[in-house]
């Protein structure tokens, strides 16, 4: 959320961020374009470079859920120009929202509360064989009936994104993102919902369902 606040405060118009990021960025009117990438800063940087190649004057930023912020254009800051920095900056997404909130006569909590109400949660299952995880995800991706049966306790599928793993939109405000780890025997689960409590509840149910699906027969 602080990264979205930072992007808006700096005048960004094009956002590059992993598909696991909070989808509320798509609902902020100031952002005219949103490019979703695979998880990892190299993919975010590649998307930023592509956006700048298409339009060198584009006000492009990138950020990840872990707070890393990348500035792709020279932004106007209270103390003067802020040059582009195409590497992860951990300080800017802390300072920029505080400065913007103060300028607006708000607390940071008030500024965040004004953003679209989307809340995320994530966790992982460990000791999950990579082959089994990949086969499970492939079955959901390729078989709509199997996917519908798996999702039935959680809701009806409204949209599907295969950018990195399997990201499923359930209704208008809920998201389930399933993704085996690329470098460890782990299965990662990301969720999004309309309240923090709903996100935690959805995460708990999803973790249980995935664990049961991957349990040895």
UniProtKB/TrEMBL annotation:
<dbReference type="InterPro" id="IPR005846">
    <property type="entry name" value="A-D-PHexomutase_a/b/a-III"/>
</dbReference>
<dbReference type="InterPro" id="IPR005843">
    <property type="entry name" value="A-D-PHexomutase_C"/>
</dbReference>
<dbReference type="InterPro" id="IPR036900">
    <property type="entry name" value="A-D-PHexomutase_C_sf"/>
</dbReference>
<dbReference type="Pfam" id="PF00408">
    <property type="entry name" value="PGM_PMM_IV"/>
</dbReference>
<dbReference type="Pfam" id="PF02880">
    <property type="entry name" value="PGM_PMM_III"/>
</dbReference>
<dbReference type="GO" id="GO:0016868">
    <property type="term" value="F:intramolecular phosphotransferase activity"/>
</dbReference>
<feature type="domain" description="Alpha-D-phosphohexomutase C-terminal">
    <location>
        <begin position="149"/>
        <end position="202"/>
    </location>
</feature>
<dbReference type="GO" id="GO:0005975">
    <property type="term" value="P:carbohydrate metabolic process"/>
</dbReference>
<protein>
    <submittedName>
        <fullName>Phosphoglucomutase/phosphomannomutase-like protein</fullName>
    </submittedName>
</protein>
<feature type="domain" description="Alpha-D-phosphohexomutase alpha/beta/alpha">
    <location>
        <begin position="11"/>
        <end position="119"/>
    </location>
</feature>
């Amino acid at each position: 959320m602080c990264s979205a606040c930072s992007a808006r405060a700096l005048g960004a118009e094009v956002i590059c961020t992993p598909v696991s990021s909070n989808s509320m960025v798509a609902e902020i009117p100031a952002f005219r374009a949103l490019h979703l990438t695979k998880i990892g800063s190299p993919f975010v940087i590649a998307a930023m470079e592509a956006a700048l190649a298409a339009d060198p004057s584009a006000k492009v930023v990138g950020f990840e859920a872990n707070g890393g912020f990348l500035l792709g254009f020279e932004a106007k800051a209270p103390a003067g120009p802020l040059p582009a920095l195409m590497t992860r900056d951990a300080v800017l997404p802390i300072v920029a929202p505080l400065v913007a909130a103060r300028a607006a006569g708000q607390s940071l909590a008030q500024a965040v509360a004004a953003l679209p109400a989307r809340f995320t949660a994530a966790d992982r299952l460990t000791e999950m064989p990579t082959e089994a995880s990949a086969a499970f995800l492939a079955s959901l991706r390729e078989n709509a009936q199997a996917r519908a049966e798996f999702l039935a306790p959680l809701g009806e599928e409204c949209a599907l994104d295969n950018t990195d793993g399997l990201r499923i939109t359930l209704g208008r405000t809920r998201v389930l993102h399933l993704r085996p780890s690329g470098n460890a025997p782990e299965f990662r689960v990301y969720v999004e919902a309309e309240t923090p409590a709903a996100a935690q509840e959805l995460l708990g149910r999803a973790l249980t369902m995935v664990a049961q699906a991957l349990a040895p027969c």
